[in-house]
Amino acid sequence: MKSSNIVWHSAAVTRERREARNGHRAVTLWFTGLSGSGKSTLSHAVEERLFEMGCNTFVFDGDNIRHGLCKDLGFSDADRTENIRRIGEVAKLTNQAGVIALAAFISPFRKDRDMVRALLPEGDFIEIYVKCSIDQCEQRDVKGLYKKARAGEIAGFTGISSPYEEPGSPEIIVETEKNSIDECVEAVIGFLCQNGVIKQ
Length: 200
Hints:
It contains eight helices and five strands. By secondary structure, the protein is of the alpha/beta class. The mean pLDDT is 90.
């Protein structure tokens, strides 16, 4: 139940002042795709490149978030929506701190990704579709999750027993099946430079 006795306190050190000192805008890079598509690998590679360029960054990884902030949630549709809502709120706060948030989540439902986009100011949500065929994802399956899902050991597994809804109009599409991680990183960095998020 939502509390009615709360007031938002504005910071004396504003987001704009933080961005000016950092030399870059604060945005949320939202990596979405099937399990095994390369979201985590790519998000960390992009962060490494941004860090080397002097940017303030932080990666929010799906598994890591479920160890703490969302450890009370399961994988029902409702819990998945709540999981994404929580990380959207954290990403929003991270942006207000002047930090580029990189969120690597399957986030299979379009309505949930749209919910996060609506949470953030215009232009702050950059959806990156990490596109990869399910066959390739299964070949990369180091955790053995697809095998368990096909054996019926994991219920509601995205791509097998639960749908993945592809983004309708993401800002960026990277195809990890066709392109190297370095090429995908360059595509993301190029977009950020062209749109004034960072300086080359």
